[in-house]
Structures are given as C-alpha cells and as structure tokens.
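Notebook entry, structure prediction.
Reason for the run: the old model in the group folder had no record of what sequence produced it. Starting over properly, with the input documented here first.
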Amino acid sequence: MAAAHRSAPTLPRLGSGRQRPGAARPADDPRSALPALAYWAYWATGLPTGTYVVENVSKQYRLGDQLVPALHRVSLTIEEGVFLAIAGPSGSGKSTLLNLIGCIDTPTTGRVLIDGLDTSGHSPDALAEIRARTIGFIFQTFNLFPVLSAEENVEYPLLQFKELSRDERRARVATFLDVVKLGKHARHRPSELSGGQRQRVAIARALATHPKIILAGEPTANLDSRTGAGILELMKEINRSFQTTFVFSTHDKKVIAKADRLIRIEDGRVRRLGMRTEDGWVLVKERRRKEAMPETQTKETSE
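New structure, fully documented this time:
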C-alpha cells in the first residue's frame, strides 16, 4: 500500500498558529509530558479541548505474584461528536481502555478527565454517579432485563434521577424508542424481540440518560451481517443528528469503515491514530524518533 509522506497534512479545524510536530516545546508547555504520537494528535485536531482526556494512563493487573501490564502510557483526547473506533487484536488492551474511559476501572498511573473533572481518587459510589449521568453503555449481549418490557428497560436507569418526574421519564422513554424506531414495540419483552430489536432497545436505554458519550463493546458481534449493518447505520445517524459521541472497542472492519476517528492498539500501546478527511484517512504510525510524522492513506481502512 503506497503512502505519501508530508510534513503538514491538510486537516479540518487546523489552527494556523499551532506549533507543528518536531518543533521544540517550551518547558512549561503542558503537552511536554505527552508521548510524540499524542502530541501530533494535539497539533492536528486542536486538542486537548474536548469531552474526554486520557493522560499518560497505564494499567497493570496482578496475577498471583506477577504484575501483568495491560496499557502503557496511553494519552488521547476524545472530542465531542466523534464516531471513534478503538481497534486491535484480542488482548491488545482495547477493552481495558474502554473500561477506563467508562470509569468501570481505574488506571494504575495517569488520569482520566471528563470535561475537566479528574476522576482519580473518587470512591466507587462517586464513580457510579459519574457513569450514570455522563456515560451510556451498549453491550455485545444487550444486557436487558428479561422480565421488563422495552419501555421499562429504557426507563430503568432513569429511576435514580430523582429530579425527573414519572411523566418526564415516560416522555424520554417514548422519545428515544421512537428514535430507534421501536415505538410500536414498547410493551414487548426481550424474548418477543429479534436480536436487532434488542440492541435498538439497548441504544435507546443508553441515550435516555442524555450522556456525554456512549461506549460500545462489539455491539454487532451477536448479530447477523445485515442486522449489524442496520444497527451501525442507526448509531451513525444518531451521531450525525444529535452530535452524540460514540466510542467502539472493535476489530470489525465494518465498524472501522463507519468511524471518523481511529485508534489502533497493540500490546497495550497506541500504535496508530487516524482521522478521516475528504481524501480518506490521515494516519500516524509510531516511529523510533523524537516526534511522529503523519502518513496519508486514501483507502477506507488500514486492514
């Protein structure tokens, strides 16, 4: 695959006064602590302003007497309204990163910030409150309550929002069931719905809390290809219509093909960042030099 190298790719929202990769950074520049790959992303997209900032995050798990590394010094910013795919093989660390972004797990070192709020050091109850009001989740296995109807499943996370009246909750439920085109199935239980319809209920449930970001772990893996394509198109439509931020953990090329941002992870490290432009993907590979250089690709994915 041919790649044309150039020092300054043409990218949207590129500030003319922003320092280019390779230039010396002042000692007091907060970006000085970022790895070269993350700094290039800062320059190219206007970061770090955005909804989520992952800053020099590492994660280790204890297995007996050994510490097993899962992530190593990951830094990135997730801008509001992106459709982002975190891609990599099994065991690469993509699910670990998604769990850290979702405040399901906490980093060993580094920090995760949500709209400037540092989530480090918060109690489990405080993190649960952050998740409930900030993050929507879409799971591979749907995770619906089998004894509840579609509308009751969508309403369930809203029950902890004491400021919402019953009528306000029901209005939200009806709105988002209509968004996913399931208004006529509101009183059906999961056993009465197809796999695609169950995932639509899960999407409505994720939207109902008005989250800043929706995290999806292989949301089409349990669906046939046609149904999965429909679910992806629905999520992309929601992303375009409502500017809802979606982040996927995936190895599915179809998900990557829909994304406008790409993070490639291997062995717990970010190996490649990508942004979709009118000319195709602009990608950055990790290089053994002080600063990373951009690589332009016009193919749909790098697979």
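Summary: The chain has eight helices and 13 strands.
The old model has been moved to the deprecated folder.
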